[in-house]
Amino acid sequence: LAKTTQPISMDSYEGQEVNITCSHNNIATNDYITWYQQFPSQGPRFIIQGYKTKVTNEVASLFIPADRKSSTLSLPRVSLSDTAVYYCLVGPYSGAGSYQLTFGKGTKLSVIP
Amino acid sequence: NAGVTQTPKFQVLKTGQSMTLQCAQDMNHEYMSWYRQDPGMGLRLIHYSVGAGITDQGEVPNGYNVSRSTTEDFPLRLLSAAPSQTSVYFCASSYSRGRGGNYGYTFGSGTRLTVV
Q1: Do B105 and A104 touch (CB under 8 A)?
Q2: What residues of chain B have any CB closer than 8 angstroms to a CB in chain A?
Q3: Residue A101 pLDDT > 80
């Protein structure tokens, strides 16, 4: 499974757009990029997944450049409730390996009033 | 639709005791997994299952057993509790293939276990 590198922590003011970048230089052809959010004392929650270019849902956007060696999770106009740890995962979606999610330490986002 | 249900939410054990953490899902997911999360750390995979009757070890399986007799249930057994097993345990489930665009895992709310 490809190793990922993301910032340990980030601070942002309410109402700002937050971009969290994840590096995955060894991403394989059949790997997908998935982001999870974890609030204190809760299990992680799936946010978004993509393979290439841009994916957007009601929660976030995911930008993936053509070489796919990095990805950026974009949270529009964050609020205090977005304070959480965000994990970037890379691995094959289906087939062998997709059930072995590998979580790093994630990025702790603190939203400041 | 309850999702993934874990019981108990909290548990204190004495060293050497055994117990079973329960996990049930009602989404007809094929994949189920158990993770542990220690303070300030990411999640580490203990055991996983790709379907009823099929289980395999993850990154940190020692001291734990699992079985999957039904699609819905995936209990985790601690054979002889040790202080090193003090952690928060999460159960997760997923379809084996994406449906409706959601490819992610659904996690339970966790069991906080303390071994003294």
Answers
A1: no
A2: 4, 31, 33, 35, 40-45, 48, 50, 58, 90, 92, 94, 96-98, 102-110
A3: no
